[in-house]
Amino acid sequence: MAETILIVEDSTLVTDALAILFGEAGYTVHSARTVAGATDLGKEQHIDLMLLDVSLPDGSGLDVLDALRRDDRLPRVTLAMTGHTDPGMRRDCLAAGCTDVLVKPVPIRDLLRQIKRLLA
Amino acid sequence: MTMAEGLDPVALRKRLAALEAQAEEAREIIDELKSRDALKTQFLSNISHDLRTPLAAIITHAEILREGMLGDLNPRQHQSVSGIVNGGQQLIDMIDEILTYVRSASDQVSLIRNQFSIIEVVDQVKLLNEALSAKKRLTIERLNGDDIPPVYADRDKLKHVLGNLIGNAIKFTPDGGHIWIQFARRGADGDELLVEVGDTGQGISRDHYELVFREFAQVDSSPSRPHHGTGLGLAIARKLVELHSGRIWVESELGKGSRFFFTLPLNPPRD
After folding, report:
1. Which residues between 65 and 94 in chain A have a beta carbon less than 8 angstroms from any beta carbon of chain B?
2. A12-24 and A108-119 helices cross at what angle (nearest 10)?
3. Can you tell me the mean pLDDT for B210-225?
């Protein structure tokens, strides 16, 4: 069965692009635009990898991790996505349980290679 | 004002009141300018973030096409889509430069110091710029530095400064020119490191030595200027060097190349 990726990102422009990318690469793709939406989806669906934008309209993306952890529904891997490189932000993401912090736009070849390796 | 007037208590009080009023007015103007500057900074920060998101989407879409994930492209289509990716990436780099400037201008940047070899950083930046310099047949040479002790500084920020100086040298040096990096120890105990990035480029006239470090300033600011950019690179470099308690300056002559220097304390107080 195809592995499942959840894209949590408030810009549908970015989500649409990533959904095409992962869809073409053979993954099942879900997306959410808010902390609440992502938390609901994460509880309902089995998610292998979550790509998590750190700033969402209703709070910090890292809140999604806390909520899913409480229900023991954490994805196998979470990669944070941010718009800029900020050492403080990076530390917070890693401390919250993200495997890595990516700066948008992530070159797609690198992104696909990294995801394949993490889900192997 | 006569001597008698100068000692007249009434006249003195009047003069004092006038001076106080002027000082108050100046304070108000300063406050107003500060708040406008903060607004400008906030605007730059917001607009940069907002520009970045759709641009990231455009680049990802173009990359999907370029990689042939939605079907094979013929060579001309591939070249055209590559142009979208490269142009987009150039825009992202400029937006990032604005964001870095905004953060440093509003004192949101702090140093994360570690001990590391600055020589390694120079060699890394050289390597990163190899393709660009090869295109212009430029030689980039590190003249010395193997004996320079490790520095205690913020590696990423110094890399940014060096990347900027070397990038500028590449940009403003005509084909076939020469760029060099060299080091010297200064100060009574040799506790200050002097870093030089020199080039055989077009040079800068003395009148513009200060201007080049000013934000948004470019020596040639005409729309038809041959070199485009945000005009922030050297302003950021200055901020980052000053954060390290160093100094940055240029020595140059039109037509005879430029030598940019910055200093770095070798033994700064440890955090």
Report:
1. 83-84, 87
2. 60
3. 72
**Which residue is associated with the tokens 């001990």?**
B115
With a cut of 60, say whether residue B4 has pLDDT above it: no
What's the pTM? 0.73
CB atoms within 10 A of CB B217: 15
Instruction: Inform me whether the pLDDT recorded for B106 exceeds 90.
Output: no
d(CA B60, CA A7): 14
pLDDT band at residue A83 under the 50/70/90 scheme: confident
Chain A interface disruption, residue of B60, B113, B157, B243, most A CBs within 10 A = B60
ipTM of this predicted structure: 0.90
DSSP B52-78: HHHHHHHHHHHHHHHTTTTS---HHHH
Max CA distance (Å), chain B: 95
Nearest chain A residue (CA) to B63: A108
**Whole-angstrom Cα distance, residue A78 to residue A115?**
10
| Min distance B162 CA to chain A CA atoms (Å) | 18
Q: Give residue B193's pLDDT.
A: 95
Q: Kindly determine whether residue B56 and residue A87, on different chains, have CB atoms separated by under 8 Å.
A: no
